[in-house]
Amino acid sequence: MSEKKMHTVIFQPSGRRGQVEEGKSILQASRELGVEIEAICGEKRTCGKCKVRIEDGFFERYGVESSRNHVSEWRPVEAKFFTEERREQGYRLACVSKIHGDLVVFVPEEARAGGQVVRKAVTDRKINVNPSVRTYYIEMEPPTLHDPLGDYERVCNALKEQHGLDAPLLDYKVLLGMPDTLRAAGWKVSVSIWFGGAAPEIVRIAPGKVDRSIGLAVDVGTTSVAAYLCDLTTGEVLNYDSMMNPQVPYGEDVMSRITYAMSHEDGIHKLQDAIIEGINTIASRITEAVGFTHEDILELAIVFNTAMHHCFLGIYPEHLGLAPYAPALHHSINIKARDLGLKFCPGANVFVLPNEAGFVGADNVGVLIAEEPYNKDDRALIIDIGTNGELIMGNKEKLISSSCATGPALEGAHIKFGMRAAPGAIEKIYINPETKEPRYKVIGKDKWSDEMDPETIGTKGICGSGIIDAVAELFKAGIIDKTGKFVKNQEHPRIRRGDDGDEYVLAWANETSIGRDVTITIKDVRAVQLAKGALYAGAKIMMQKLGYDTLDRVVLAGAFGSFIDREESLVIGMFPDVPVTKAYAVGNAAGDGARMALLDADKRKEADEWARKVEYIELSVEPAFEKEFMMAMHLPHMKDKFPNLKTLLEEQGLGDLIKG
Amino acid sequence: MSEKKMHTVIFQPSGRRGQVEEGKSILQASRELGVEIEAICGEKRTCGKCKVRIEDGFFERYGVESSRNHVSEWRPVEAKFFTEERREQGYRLACVSKIHGDLVVFVPEEARAGGQVVRKAVTDRKINVNPSVRTYYIEMEPPTLHDPLGDYERVCNALKEQHGLDAPLLDYKVLLGMPDTLRAAGWKVSVSIWFGGAAPEIVRIAPGKVDRSIGLAVDVGTTSVAAYLCDLTTGEVLNYDSMMNPQVPYGEDVMSRITYAMSHEDGIHKLQDAIIEGINTIASRITEAVGFTHEDILELAIVFNTAMHHCFLGIYPEHLGLAPYAPALHHSINIKARDLGLKFCPGANVFVLPNEAGFVGADNVGVLIAEEPYNKDDRALIIDIGTNGELIMGNKEKLISSSCATGPALEGAHIKFGMRAAPGAIEKIYINPETKEPRYKVIGKDKWSDEMDPETIGTKGICGSGIIDAVAELFKAGIIDKTGKFVKNQEHPRIRRGDDGDEYVLAWANETSIGRDVTITIKDVRAVQLAKGALYAGAKIMMQKLGYDTLDRVVLAGAFGSFIDREESLVIGMFPDVPVTKAYAVGNAAGDGARMALLDADKRKEADEWARKVEYIELSVEPAFEKEFMMAMHLPHMKDKFPNLKTLLEEQGLGDLIKG
């Protein structure tokens, strides 16, 4: 082999450094050193994407005397892409600039490949891809009697020489298989390093060149578990899956699970085992469907409410269920997946997002980092409605949060004909104010009920969004008044007295598959009033705390928020008045937050920072809460004005219903 | 409560800081902030131990404007303990100096309580007590609805306020029991923090005030396991215990265990389980004997040879048993005790000392940090004789190491009447050069054989030190020549031909409890020559590498080294000539090194630094080795001069035996 002259090249801001042969282009050097520079034209010098800046001087800082004279001469083609000013600053195209001496090369944000991606699946959010686990391909010489250096030290030397990385820690489980892996792979391996801890740590050594590194983001809801399998390099969601929370058999809601854990021997471990096994199951399914195995998962980021958080970790949730509801910890925590019984890659870590408070968990922090109200000026209310309602309010000046027991009414539970959002559930209702006749849509059918042969509708019950619609429509049609009571002496075949008091028939028995009239009762209306009253009163207290007269927008997070009708929600007064276009759903923002934490290390810092900065308001100790709650039971409210809603209703000829 | 004025007080070099009430003494402040200042007179102002220095200025460095004017006036009693010069430097007695403003207080070495101790038991070495695990007592207010802060954050706040510590990480297993412990203990707990990782980590939260924190140091030898239970605050050895290495049934020596691991399914895990169970057993025994439990152990520091290292960790030792003998890792590693199946406190870590090379393990690094040849000028040879012989040579200029297969002869194995050092073993021999009659001592008897009724001696065999003595005495008495052969035509009842060739009767059958003459045979002499020849040749090669003509001292490490006679060792030529007073035993230096690593965090850095700085010499690839080995088989050597030994023998009238 002829002796080629070598030069030291350091890329900033990544800090990768290495020896590069004389005469190679900066683009070639970047590839050798594992620095990603955008170059979409295939080095045809036409795209101008591969802009870099040659740093002059800097010996003290980098130990290398970089100079613009160490690069080949300026080429006419470069003038197309740079102003004279940029040229003077040292900008060059990486594809045409050849290396003739030691260099420090700065890669500007716009030239960094893989930096910004827009994820397609699930919810469309911009996620910066800056994962905690990164994979590096290295090649080593095998040991000899004259060079019997240990395996770990050999790996460290290669990481240093080929990627400019200082020696990382080594996870014990990786150490176990390392000698065999290195030899079986001919000393060519991909080393995955986790940067999420106090010091970088090797979490996997895989044979050969690994193209895709994957991680999992999970949102554990009280009722369901959603999982997102992500490519840690591109940020792409490779697969999505969900399942019923396997803890449901131990209690439908948080309090009943806490009770189960406290009243059964080993109850907490049954709950923990259930969710761990559930995640193991979903991890196998979600990976195998796209050609991986659960052992390829390099990291998990996970959110849940505080009680599910404790159950997942196996912490007795006793103290969480009693005043003052102090959680075991707020801060995020990294735990080895194996310590939890999770069957991922043996060295994998689990990043558990931080909790805000006893009733505002990591899931709400997920919403927070997905929505980033702390970066915005407008005064927002973010409502995450699950079995509990969690509220965040504020803007970049100040953020507060609270939690209120909405009860399960908004999810269709404890409602006479309530059911989950499944085929046959009424999800959309309109009642004609003049005829007081309804039309509705059931899940699974394309047409409205009045466009179908009654026998083919197959109604089974009402889901959450249908219940909100029902109450709003009953009110708009004048069937119930603003206190929620049925207006007296209405003569209509659908308005009648049933076992639970006054009721309205939404579907006659022949339109159902259950052979009974599906009704909405005065008790159902009351349940919705209680739920929405709690949400509204919470929001009001929070507005008072922040000194807000009005809100600029209302964000509905959570799967449930995606299905409800924002206009109907406004009509029942689920939240204070805003222009209807300023109330919108964002889908599973908690899951998005988990995904963002998985893919972007900076989001983890944001999560810990904001989980503590958000001031939690314990509504139950607020003296004004009870009075606010009572007033908020009215439709839409006893006293508050709804100018935006009034305008909307005026357009429908219903302006008199509410105050302006 | 009246508002007391508070001042910031910072103690150096510990860096502890906190708010202290106006008018308190510096000694009181030190106790509040957990800084230990010596004060043996009980504040009677008579001992003068509590000397501290008030630092002036330093705002930029500490963020606090410290001033000598912030302390109460100089008291006449202080003049007894300080020179005028010291007074000008700002020295005061902490017990009489009252705080009237912000202060930076330097606590000099001599005033630091518990800093330096001299350990009494086992081997007397000065160990600086600077453990990786430290325990802090904190008191907290319980949470309320108005202060529902999480448990972990509450602990962190208390650590900050009461000890000036930044929030440590929290081990997952500690988190599990934390909520209950805090409440059951009335929010008064002792928090043990491990500083051995990349960031401090809470490894235990114990109720109330814990007086003693304990750790374990273990030396796993091929044949035996030694354990030292240490007080992590005082450095004291609270208990010592040892046991047979439970891996012995799988192979007496290293190579046979490697073979077992490779040739039996799950062989490595059997070996690992055996040693882990052994350490669990010894940990229970050693703690319970002094009123603790194995769950009180906060950290383990452990040494072994490289093969035992791999077996302990469960790494297949296949590659270690084959050229080029590269170990899986050299560097030290911290592993959670639970990951290894060790039953200590659930958050405990294991510090595994680094390996030097494939055949020079962490035990030799233990010897290195115990002996510190790198801090000394004189040219030392340190020999650790176990089943393998490990050699370190050099001084602060340069250190090299090597390993040679001495075989088990020096431990009494593969010797016709060889046995372990146990009652009945001949441990000391003298042969009269004129009468060629021996006298000897057996373990368990106070008198020499010729002072006893033969029937009461009860000889059973010869242990390692006896075998060295036998060969040396046979040589000195002219019974064998310098090649190890029996001199021809000797007429003596004790010199005869047996099954194994020429032999010498050490003990007649009536002096034994086995009813047979105990002899030393030509084959036994040959075995000793092979062992000592390997050690000597190794030392010679190392001297050549270092350019040494002579050595200044020889250190015999290991239990075996403590029992052999240094003069007899010199006579047989186990190591190159030094003045006999400059050859000395230091006991189990490897175990001492483990103990020092447990007790002094700085020793861990030293271990990693020197494990790599010591240059390992692979003797088997040294061209000169074979010739040196052959010459070193002679007694004491074929060619080398032994001037010191000659002087010694001349005093005994045996000067002609060897070259000067």
Classify the secondary structure makeup of chain A into a structural class.
alpha/beta
Low-pLDDT sequence parts of chain A: 114-121
Number of domains of chain A: 5
Report the end-to-end length of chain A measured between terminal Cα atoms: 87 Å
Q: Give me the Rg of chain A, rounded.
A: 30 Å
Proportion of β residues of chain A? 15-25%
Shape of chain A: elongated
Enumerate how many helices of chain A there are, as a single number.
19
Q: Strand order, biggest sheet of chain A?
A: 14-13-12-15-17-16
Main sheet overview of chain A: 6 strands, mixed
**Helix content range of the residues of chain A, please?**
25-40%
Number of strands of chain A: 29
Oligomer: homodimer
Largest protein interface? Answer: A-B, 54 and 54 residues
Mean pLDDT of chain A: 89
Condensed summary:
Chain A has 660 residues and is of the alpha/beta class.
Descriptive report:
The structure is a homodimer of 660-residue chains. Helix content of chain A is 29%, strand content 23%. The first copy, chain A, has a six-stranded mixed beta sheet, sandwiched between helices. Chain A has a six-stranded mixed beta sheet with strand order 28-27-18-19-20-29, sandwiched between helices. In chain A, strands 2-1-5-3-4 form a five-stranded mixed beta sheet. The first copy, chain A, is built from 19 helices and 29 strands. Chain A has 660 residues and is α/β, with parallel strands linked by helices. Chain A has five domains: 6-113, Beta-grasp domain (Ubiquitin-like (UB roll)); 132-207, Ubiquitin-like (UB roll), CATH 3.10.20.880; 214-352, Nucleotidyltransferase, domain 5, CATH 3.30.420.480; 379-406 and 532-657, no CATH class; 410-527, no CATH class. In chain A, a hairpin with a 7-residue loop joins strand 6 (116-118) and strand 7 (126-128). At the A-B interface, helix 5, strand 9, helix 6, strand 16 and helix 10 of A face helix 5, strand 9, helix 6, strand 16 and helix 10 of B.
